[in-house]
Amino acid sequence: MAWADRGAGRVTRPDRRWVLAAGAGLAVATITAGATHVWGPGVPRLHTAPDWYAAHLTNRGARAELDLLNQEWLVSGSVPGRGTDIEDMVRSALLDLRRLTAPSGALAAGAGMKWNYSWPRDAAFGALALACAGHLEEAAAALRFFAPLQLPGGGLESRYLLDGSGVPDARPAQSDGPGWVLWALGSLTAIGLGRLLEAQPSLAVDLRRLATGCLDHLLTSTSAGTTLPVVTADFWEVEQSRASLGLVAPMLAGLRGAATFFTTLDDPGRAARAASAAATFEPVILSHFGPTFQRHGDRGGRDAGTAMLMPPFTDEQPAVLEAWLGYQQGAARASGGLAPGTDWWQHGESWTPQTALVAFNAASSGRAPLAKQWLTWLDSIRTPWGSLPEKVLNDGAPAGPAPLAWTAALVVLAAYELDRDRQIRTDSVANWVR
């Protein structure tokens, strides 16, 4: 099957697991796609080739078989946003998450060598997205991957090799990882994780061990929610001297998720400790970072960390809402999306994960028109082969890896929340009529 422009109709893309089985590894061919549109040093070109399909699948029978497997996989679950303008984008995002999944269960952050690793953050969002589309076992596997890889004390490295053999370099660990993993585990309990753990005792053992280590790490790092943690990098992945909102907000989400997860496991002691720490830690965050909720409290500009203090991660606070809206206004870029922060480099480029994160917030908090606005923009900047790139340059050209797991996952999750919002409103009208 030849590649086609997504506007010409649905295009089924191959299952990368065939490539893995053939010994080619997860990395796809790396070429420059189209015009370079590169400005200044350090700006990556588009790293993902649309023709890796043809490069690895020369046998027509193999291609047809993989096309069928992809469609069967989609049919075995569900596609959030079905029947809406974003259905095709969500469908492509789900297939990209499937193709980014390694035989070990690990979920790669993106296509291309620099992203060919599993970040706890990206895997957490990807796992929840897969579960929301009906693929709970694959979601659990993406998180289970980290269970034997925890550091002493329960922490997690910033990223891991996909075969679970270690880390790719000496990059320091990031403390937001355990928070995101616990948030995902807690969220998965609402989608049937408890039943899956009852049916698979070994999975329950591994996820309990993972969650216990992550919770111990958060409780130690925050002195049971009473202090801000030791400083590490956050989603900006740069060294910093002060704790950022993007570091501590995931830790709060993780404590709340741990309380839910351990309640499901019938472990009231750990559930109570997690809930108590979350209740203590939230006012610590609000006090330190309020009232302006900039990246470092009173400085650094507003960034996407504000989104991590919005639903569905925690309850909405008026001051945070104001900061969240202000972030969108100040971080808007010429290419139509959002930069990671208002003080980010003023190159005009938009970053799709942060834009999709805001769409997820909006969909989760009953702001459907705003969510649709950002999702419509994301749909408009997809690559010709349908994937969402990491970012869009100031002239509208995509850059970085495409697909990117975090963005793909957030698009699926936003669509899922919009579906729930529509169902709630429909049920409300039906009840009123009755």
How many distinct domains? Answer: 1
Terminal CA distance reads 51 Å
Record field, number of beta strands: 3
Main beta sheet, described? Answer: 3 strands, antiparallel
Which structural class do the helices and strands define? Answer: mainly alpha
Oligomeric category: single chain
CA gyration radius, whole angstroms:
21 Å
Tell me, what is the CATH class?
A: Mainly Alpha
Helix and strand element order: HHHHHHHHHHHHEHHEEH
CATH level-3 fold name: Glycosyltransferase
Describe the structure in brief.
Keywords: Hydrolase. The chain has 434 residues and is mainly alpha-helical. It contains 15 helices and 3 strands.
Give a topology summary.
Blueprint: H1 16-21, H2 52-56, H3 60-76, H4 87-99, H5 120-132, H6 136-144, H7 176-188, H8 193-199, H9 201-221, H10 245-264, H11 268-289, H12 318-331, E1 350-351, H13 352-364, H14 368-380, E2 391-392, E3 398-399, H15 405-433
Antiparallel strand pairs: 1-2, 2-3
Helix pairs in contact: 4-15, 5-6, 5-7, 5-15, 7-9, 7-10, 8-9, 9-10, 10-11, 13-14, 13-15
Can you give a write-up of this model?
There is one protein chain. With 434 residues, the chain is mainly alpha-helical. The chain has 15 helices and three strands. It has helices at 16-21, 52-56, 60-76, 87-99, 120-132, 136-144, 176-188, 193-199, 201-221, 245-264, 268-289, 318-331, 352-364, 368-380, 405-433, and strands spanning 350-351, 391-392, 398-399. It has a three-stranded antiparallel β-sheet. The longest helix has 29 residues, at 405-433. The N and C termini lie far apart (51 Å). The relative contact order is 0.12.
